[in-house]
Amino acid sequence: MKVKVISILVLNQEKALDFYTNKLGFVKKTDIPLDGDSRWLTVVSKEEQDGPEILLEPGPLHFEPARIYQKALFDAGIPFTQFNVDDVQAEYERLLALGVEFSLPPTPMGTVKLAVLNDTCGNNIQLVEML
Q1: CATH 1.10.150.120 fits 5-130, yes or no
Q2: pLDDT category, 95, cuts 50, 70, 90?
């Protein structure tokens, strides 16, 4: 069994695509129109383009429990997911220069250093560096 696609709930797919590609550095993999304004829209790591895809899922727009769940996580400051990076401090500084907002700056916690950012699409995202 392998991980092929994971979903991140987003409030606006176009805004999410812009943020995940132009700020975080992912690459668009798949963009297939579905019903209404929804798309099967995935991005992948630039370094691992045949690796797992992230589905930018418009679930909160079509399924009220998803919207409530996403908002509750965000309001509590809980990250929806995490991405590993080689150097949290460098990524933090790069993203700050691009206008990304952080709720937690790079912080050592045991065997990791982490930071938490706002993806502008309803989620807190945790960046983790293994120490």
Answers
A1: no
A2: very high
